[in-house]
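Module 6 notes. Inverse folding takes a fixed backbone as the condition and produces residue identities as the prediction. Think of it as a translation problem where the source language is geometry and the target language is the twenty amino acids. Below is one complete input and output pair. Work through it position by position during the lab.
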């Protein structure tokens, strides 16, 4: 198990607490989850993403997707009493899980589907108009508005 010391980040930065907490939580949860279930994160478009989890053996009723501010939680709950099989050898993971994904601001879950043992969750990042870049038109040769505002400021 590798341990990463983030103390220098806390000592030398101001206002980045959420980022350092994000790293701390990511390292801790990754060690707890031990890579189960495996997943892919895919870029579909400029602001569209998909998370696909390999959830073989789970049916829709055993899966739960929860969204909180800045967090996506996917849970799979297997009923151990339901399946009373006796195995000679068992390598297929058939256990409950909880997988957390940190979401950036303005990322919304738009859809989820379960197909052939793969749970795909689609996400989209929609920036509010106020946060989108805007272009300012440069007028050539006309400084009348600026001169008028400067004269008003001097008079006041």
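Target side of the pair, the amino acids:
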């Amino acid at each position: 198990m590798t341990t990463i010391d983030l103390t220098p980040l806390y000592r030398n930065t101001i206002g980045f607490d959420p980022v350092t907490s994000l790293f701390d939580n990511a390292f801790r949860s990754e060690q707890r989850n031990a890579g189960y279930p495996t997943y892919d994160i895919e870029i579909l478009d400029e602001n569209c993403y998909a998370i696909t989890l390999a959830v073989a053996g789970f049916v829709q009723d055993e899966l739960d997707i929860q969204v909180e501010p800045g967090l996506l939680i996917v849970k799979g709950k297997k009923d151990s009493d339901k399946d009373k099989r006796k195995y000679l050898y068992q390598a297929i993971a058939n256990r409950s899980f909880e997988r957390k994904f940190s979401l950036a601001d303005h990322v919304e879950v738009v859809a989820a589907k379960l197909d052939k043992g793969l749970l795909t969750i689609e996400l989209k990042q929609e920036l509010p108009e106020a946060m989108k870049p805007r272009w300012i038109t440069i007028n050539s040769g006309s400084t009348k508005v600026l001169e008028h505002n400067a004269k008003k400021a001097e008079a006041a």
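Reference fact for the lab report: The first helix runs from residue 7 to 12.
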